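quick one if you have a minute, typing this from the bus. below you get a single protein, a line of residues and a line of whole numbers that encode the local backbone shape. could you go over both lines and see whether the tokens make sense for that sequence. anything you notice is useful, everything is just below.
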Amino acid sequence: MESYALLFASMLNAGTVLAIASLGLLINEKAGVVNLGAEGLLLCSAIAGFAVVVHTGSDWIGFAAGMGAGAVLAAIFGVLVIWLNTNQYATGLALALFGAGFSAFVGAGYVQAKLPERPHFSIPVLGDIPLIGPALFRQHPLVYVTIALAFGLIWFLYRTRAGLVLRSVGESPDSAHALGYPVRRIRLAAVVAGGALCGLSGAYISLVYTPLWVEGMVAGKGWIALALTTFATWRPARVLLGAYLFGGVTMLQFYLQSRGVEMPSQFLAMTPYLATVVVLALISRNPAWIRINMPASLGKPFYPGS
């Protein structure tokens, strides 16, 4: 039973990476902007957070650095696609490629670097409960912050005027513009906020999930986060659930290996990505369902003068 508790704890840890990034991408897409550069954002933020902690010894400064790196890159992306009207998909792919190369270049000197001793977290009393304690109450604080963030985003999007405006910009930017809302600035703010969350996810990878730096260590998590927003049909609660589902699939490979299951390691390693493809294939069988939930102007440029 203890092994199941550890598996569940690992699932929450792995799912948090995807949940933070996916919630950031969801904010982008609710405003009508698709950012395919999530992989590059995660990589640059991972090395930014890691390098800062190596030099300062403070995880929280490292998380701030990761968020800053993600926000700056996202702002550059936003200016290109929102003001200069470059193609969102091509620009996002360029950002992904840039992030992979730039992080490898900057991180070359940090491959052998070591972080300060990692702190261990446990909620008093609750963390000592047999089975449940190790599974739920000995997580990094960001695990609980992520859950609160998902529910806070639900409240923001569906219970506040600002959330309504953000969704209207993603649904009909021309109508929002006609009502006097600064569509471009709202979209840029959404892109920067989403980039900051992707940056937090990248820093979480290098500081908590696998506390080290290796070139390409994000290993496709940015692409899975992108797929997860579609899988969740742009709903924060479903994003959270889907992230933990994919996190469970990711950690299942290590659990099976530890239990002596005789399967090729390559097959186990591809399991999360295979699950992503299967889920997207199943969703794609009902395109009308996707269209109903998808922001109507997703991926479409906005021309204020038109």
User: Anything to note?
Assistant: The chain has a mean pLDDT of 88.
